[in-house]
Amino acid sequence: MTVVLHVAKASGISGSENHLLLLLPALRARGWDARFLLLHEDEPGAWELARRLDEGGVPVEGIRLRRSADPLALTRLAGAVRRHRPDIVHTHLVHADVLGLAAARLARVPVRASTKHGFNAFRETRGFGLVDRAATAGVDLHIAISRGLARYLARVEGFREEAFEVVHYGIEPGDDPPPPAAADRLAVVGRLIPIKGHRTLFSALERVPEARVEVAGDGPLEAELKALAAPLRARVSFLGRVAPAAPVMERAGIVVVPSLGEGFGMVALEAMERGRAVIASAVGGLPEIVDDGHTGLLVPPEDPDALTEAIGSLVHDPARVRAMGAAGRRRALEAFSQEQNTERTIALYEASLGAAARRRRMSRRAPAARTSANAASTASRKSQGTR
């Protein structure tokens, strides 16, 4: 059985962790020995991830980092990789790319894979791209969760866009959703941080007085956003962190994703699976999820005027909102199923293992070829010496 060791640092459960919670048990169900190496700093969210993977039948081993940057952890990590004897090491996020891929090289793992998951402000800092490219140099399989993310990494870090294979996140179907609520009921789900675009949404809502919105999420901008939303009075409700978020989406007619950057845009996909129309920024992976004009509307990021127009056009057209929600659910289940995600991942693994096997055969032939050539050369010289 092929051993695939996934490595990631986790402090909680969000997009990449939810992806692993679906993918790793699915790989095991298809006969792959998928395991997980958890880098952590004793965060409760990390242990929650470990517990849920364990419940899904995935073997988990934890390695504690004494601080976020812990170069001494490489020795412990390399030892753990050697114990597992994996055929593939597959890393996720920065810490695992830096430490996990180095450990895989030290352990001479046949195939090394890395998945990039998101837009991050730190990726645009000076010198980070050089570090990131160095950490992933020689990787056999580069994966991005959207083509938009691959373009972003090429632009800000200097990667080659075409070097990335794109593997979209998958989603499991839930029960049939209830009919959409009134078209003037909106929802926005996500951390209260700048990149999620709440400021743009609140600016747009000032000019759509009939629209009401529930805000699900917490984060460092909470106080600022509540102050910004104060003039909107009772039309904005802050719910705090809500998990799962499906009930919030089901109370809405439209889910708004006004992000400034999204590696994928899982909230949009989750909303579509719940049969809700989506208004989203045309950034990152969101245009690959939302079929503009069919399952929702796409608008430029940080453009309150365009967002105002999009919201206004739908809150006055409930029939269109219902049609978009129905089309969105069909698209979510047909184009973004977890089965498709798993099968695509397996196909890439098999191709990478095949390429690694061919390299090994060629490397074994090379010494034999050199020996044969040397013998022929020696024989030729001896023959010339007897003439």
Mean pLDDT: 93
> Using DSSP, what is the number of strands?
13
Could you tell me the strand content as a percent range? 15-25%
**Helix content range:** 40-55%
Largest sheet: 7 strands, parallel
**Would you identify the regions where 5 or more consecutive residues have pLDDT less than 50?**
none
Contiguous helical run count: 14
Overview of the structural elements:
Helices cover 47% and strands 17% of the residues. Strands 3-2-1-4-5-6-7 form a 7-stranded parallel beta sheet, with helices on both faces. The chain has a 6-stranded parallel beta sheet with strand order 10-9-8-11-12-13, sandwiched between helices. α11 links the parallel β12 and β13. The longest helix has 48 residues. The chain starts with a strand and ends with a helix.
Question: How is the secondary structure organized here?
Answer:
Layout (H helix, E strand, L loop, with lengths): L2 E7 L5 H15 L3 E8 L3 H12 L4 E5 L8 H12 L3 E5 H14 L4 E6 L11 H8 L5 E4 L2 H11 L6 E3 L18 E5 L8 H8 L6 E5 L5 H8 L6 E5 L5 H5 L3 E4 L8 H8 L3 E5 L4 H4 L6 E4 L4 H12 L2 H18 L2 H48 L2
Parallel strand pairs: 1-2, 1-4, 2-3, 4-5, 5-6, 6-7, 8-9, 8-11, 9-10, 11-12, 12-13
Helix pairs in contact: 1-14, 3-4, 7-12, 10-13
Describe what is shown at a glance.
The chain is of the alpha/beta class.
